[in-house]
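Suppose you are handed a protein chain with no further information: no name, no annotation, nothing but its sequence. What can you learn? This example shows the usual starting point.
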Amino acid sequence: MTAQRLAIQVLAAVALCMPALAAAQDDDDRGQYILELVPQIRDLIAADSDLDAATSGLSASARQLVASNSDIAARASDKGTVLSVASDVLFAFDRATLSAKAQSTLQDIAAIVADIPAGSVKVIGHTDSVGGVDYNKTLSAARAEAVVAFLVAHGVDASRLAPAGHGETEPVAENEINGKDNPPGRARNRRVEFVLPK
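A reasonable first move is to predict its three-dimensional structure. Written in structure tokens, the prediction is:
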């Protein structure tokens, strides 16, 4: 993490605190409020460090694309860097046709993949648990194929892309909690992942 990014994070945290600090009745209130914010500031810095670790194998321009596009999440895995884009960004519900808003995000992904000199990139579609297992596997595969078609149309060599549909088999969040529907969890599970080579 650069000193400049750390300074920006600290300034952002301070700016968010100003209204509450101004409303505090005395110095003890202000001090207590600041002490309560310290863990949150540490979490903010740690999240940025996690992004740095996940994207450390990418070029500076690719890291910048990931950092500047809020629709792309990155994490490190034993297979390489995994970029994840929510399916809700790319597709309408229950569809495998790319949405208009998918264009800029996938252009960033195409630029990142093109920046990697060699190796195969896995493009993996995932769904939530709504619908049958076979249906979700087919839908996720069709979504991965649609993404691959876009990337190829935007200059990525088709021989470097390996599409697959995993359906609902690899959730990153709970689809249900205590037997009740969990819409935020299901939304996290609907995604397309790009596993970049090490």
